[in-house]
């Protein structure tokens, strides 16, 4: 028999937290009295996370684990989890307890009793984070909301999804996934629960600046073609300017005024040159996104897996 709820937790170098997190998540689920499984995806951790997970699998019969062959990034680790989940609903969360398991009962209530198909937990504030990350993400969401037309402000990856939603999500074939955006795109009936982000347990965030910028570019290219349209718009604008300037220069030449505007020429050169560079860059981003989609590579590679004892037992029956 399928579990009612699958909890999906992607982890990367979380050896210090994983025991505490899994124990807490499990105890909250046991309190709820639902049939559940926990699915941990080890995103190619370089520390002893996998050994810890193996030990936990021996202790907790509801625990399954997948180990990816290298670090594919949180988005793809999530993919692996969503593709393998068996539950009638899935709860996606982080391993650092910044997504409080105390919200489970309210999430499940909204799904089971009130009938919502997506329950999203929305950050009331962003908790303790370095200032540059706070500002960076505020700017990122402002831009993304404007461009994509989806309000992702305060969105987190802490969500409950009904089986129907997961099915629809699995039918989205893209390789470049952006979980928050994709669930917003899917629609369905959604409820929101606000929560205060607690401080991260164990060391610092697993996202470096480079991976955050990569995520931002991925989010924009997969959810908006506005930058491409902006290129066209800027192109048209500069063409108009060039026509007016060209006409003026021609007129001056015709009436015999000497052309003295050396500075203007240089400035124009620089301006047009930079606009072309930026435009090419934006076009390049989209081309590389298209290129990645057309490669049809598997999204992630599994190195090994452990199946929960509960699932094994039910399979035998
Ligand atoms: N994570 C992952 N792969 C990565 C980076 C992070 O699976 O390449 C996991 C990480 O272990 C954690 C979750 O994604 O469970 C969120 O990461 P983190 O708390 O570092 O991100 P933040 O809360 O700063 O967004
Ligand atoms: Mg975190």
Key attributes of the depicted protein:
binds magnesium ion; eight-stranded mixed β-sheet; alpha/beta; 8 strands; 317 residues; transmembrane helix; Glyco_trans_2-like; binds uridine-5'-diphosphate; Glycosyltransferase_2; transferase; transmembrane
Fold topology:
Layout: E1 5-11, H1 18-32, E2 36-42, H2 49-59, E3 63-68, H3 74-84, E4 89-92, H4 104-112, E5 118-123, H5 131-148, E6 159-162, H6 163-170, H7 179-186, E7 190-195, H8 209-223, H9 226-254, H10 262-294, E8 302-306, H11 309-316
Parallel strand pairs: 1-2, 1-4, 2-3, 5-7
Antiparallel strand pairs: 3-8, 4-6, 5-6
Helix pairs in contact: 5-8, 9-10
Bound molecules: uridine-5'-diphosphate (UDP) and magnesium ion.
Magnesium ion is lined by residues 94, 96, 98, 200, 205.
Task: Explain what this protein looks like in three dimensions.
The chain has 317 residues and is α/β, with parallel strands linked by helices. Helix content is 52%, strand content 14%. It is built from 11 helices and 8 strands. The protein has helices at 18-32, 49-59, 74-84, 104-112, 131-148, 163-170, 179-186, 209-223, 226-254, 262-294, 309-316; strands spanning 5-11, 36-42, 63-68, 89-92, 118-123, 159-162, 190-195, 302-306. It has an 8-stranded mixed β-sheet, sandwiched between helices. The longest helix has 33 residues, at 262-294. The radius of gyration is 25 Å and the shape is elongated. The protein starts with a strand and ends with a helix. The mean pLDDT is 82. The structure holds uridine-5'-diphosphate and magnesium ion. Uridine-5'-diphosphate is lined by residues 10-12, 14, 43, 71, 73-74, 77, 94-96, 98, 200, 205-207.
